[in-house]
Write a structure and sequence with these properties.
Helix content: 40-55%
CATH class of the largest domain: Mainly Alpha
Distance between the termini: 54 Å
CATH architecture of the largest domain: Up-down Bundle
CATH superfamily of the largest domain: Butyryl-CoA Dehydrogenase, subunit A, domain 3
Structural class: alpha+beta
Number of helices: 10
Bound molecules: coenzyme a persulfide
Number of domains: 3
Low-confidence stretches: none
Shape: globular
CATH topology of the largest domain: Butyryl-CoA Dehydrogenase, subunit A, domain 3
Oligomer: single chain
Strand order of the largest sheet: 1-4-5-8
């Protein structure tokens, strides 16, 4: 089965993205290993190795450190995630977390930090994780309570990180901690913490409805050297937000992959399933439903490609202007629309749709967390709302 990739002809994309889309679809449909995903952690490790061996993880880092292009390219991330997600949500997850977990190093690392981690990420030799959320700080990042205290030799970290993707299998974590506990978002710094660091315990696995490696990470008097500080002291909140600005558009890409797959499954089912002497596809009710689903997919897709293009164009022009509201719009719309599209596909399948093991049943579980992680839909609404207030009030003056 191959996804329809006619959207790659849109002017948002260059030939490098078009070729990438074709290559990853060919790999995922024919060459990629068939992986037993019953153990999510073992399967994710296998996917990271397979994606590394195939060269696709090179798109997660810049070329100076073993990557595919000079700078991290949002459209490439979107194309890769959209295509991988069409075939395997766990392959998409394994790819995405290598990018998200190392993204802050790409954006703000020293040369030594980049040398130490990015090449290994691109080859699949080191597994990366982004450790921001805490039991009391999910949407409200400024409320995080993990502390990093300066000592003569480095830093001592204490706290609890949770909902950490790749927790338990990561080789290193980009940990966000308070270095000035009373300064809110202006008192947070980032650290690279190796999983082998004394005082780090990532053994608490969190089982979820669409299995993927997720854990709570405890930091108890976890000592890291001065060289572990990532980016400016107390600049961690902005670094986290800049990282999310890039990867939120790619979450939208993954949602598109799920939604496109659901649309294919629904269409094929509608053309084969017979009832009342006709195929399901013969009924106007079905045609209307499929029409709505296709439009929902394309609405999410256009916002996603715009967000990725805007960021890549800003990087190309050397602009420091933030691209924040557009990825938020893309993530919100693509994930919410994908949920609706998948629900409609499941409904069209009738009883088969809820049968454990059917593709639409697993997609129904796979899509759900995308509306929550990397900023829930409500957070995206907040970000977009603030942007509207600031830009439209400026227009009115
Ligand atoms: N890029 C750069 N700087 C940013 C930024 C971005 N995308 N977003 C905010 N900032 C800056 C602001 O300009 C502000 O700077 P100053 O202190 O210099 O004024 C500072 O950061 C604080 O911004 P703001 O006041 O908007 O922060 P809030 O505490 O109101 O938080 C939300 C804003 C809710 C949008 C933010 O906390 C968020 O995105 N939360 C969700 C986090 C998330 O995705 N969690 C999931 C974990 S990852 S799986």
């Amino acid at each position: 089965m191959r996804p329809d990739q006619s959207h790659l002809l849109l002017p948002f994309f260059y030939d490098v993205h078009r070729q990438l889309g074709v290559d990853v679809a060919a790999w995922a449909s024919a060459t990629a290993p068939r992986i037993d995903e019953s153990d999510d952690r073992a399967a994710c490790r296998t996917w990271v190795k397979a994606l590394g061996d195939a060269g696709f993880l090179r798109w997660c880092v810049p070329s100076a450190y073993g990557g595919a292009l000079a700078a991290l390219d949002s459209r490439a991330l979107v194309v890769l995630r959209e295509t991988l997600a069409f075939y395997s949500p766990l392959a998409d997850f394994a790819f995405a977390m290598q990018g998200l977990g190392s993204g802050a190093i790409t954006l703000a690392g020293t040369d030594a930090q980049k040398q130490g981690y990015l090449g290994a990420v691109a080859q699949g030799r080191k597994i990366a994780a982004f450790a921001l959320s805490e039991p009391g700080a999910g949407s409200d990042v400024g409320a995080l309570a993990t502390t990093a205290v300066k000592t003569a030799d480095g830093w001592v970290l204490n706290g609890e990180k949770t909902w950490i993707s790749n927790g338990g299998i990561a080789d290193f974590y980009c940990v966000f901690a308070k270095t000035e506990p009373d300064a809110g978002t202006r008192g947070i710094s980032a650290f690279i913490v190796d999983a082998s660091a004394a005082g780090l315990d990532d053994s608490r696995h969190i089982p979820v409805m669409a299995p993927h490696p997720l854990a709570t990470v405890m930091l108890r008097d976890c000592v890291v050297p001065d060289t572990a500080l990532l980016g400016p002291l107390n600049g961690g909140f902005k670094l986290a937000m800049q990282t999310l600005d890039i990867f939120r558009a790619s979450v939208a890409g993954a949602a598109l992959g799920f939604a496109r797959r659901a649309l294919v499954e629904a269409t094929q089912h509608a053309q084969q399933r017979r009832m009342f002497g006709h195929t399901l596809a013969d009924f106007q009710l079905t045609q209307a439903k499929l029409g709505q689903m296709a439009a929902d997919v394309d609405a999410g897709a256009l916002l996603t490609y715009r967000a990725a293009w805007l960021r890549d164009d800003a990087v190309r022009r050397g602009s420091n202007a933030r691209v924040t509201a557009e990825p938020a719009m893309a993530k919100m719309t693509a994930t919410e629309n994908a949920q609706r599209v998948i629900d409609a596909a499941l409904q069209m399948h009738g009883g088969l749709g809820v049968m454990v093991g059917s593709k639409v049943e697993s997609l129904y579980r796979d899509i759900r967390s995308l509306r929550i992680y990397e900023g829930a839909t409500e957070v995206q609404q907040l970000i977009i709302g603030k942007h509207v207030l600031s830009t439209l009030s400026a227009v009115g003056q």
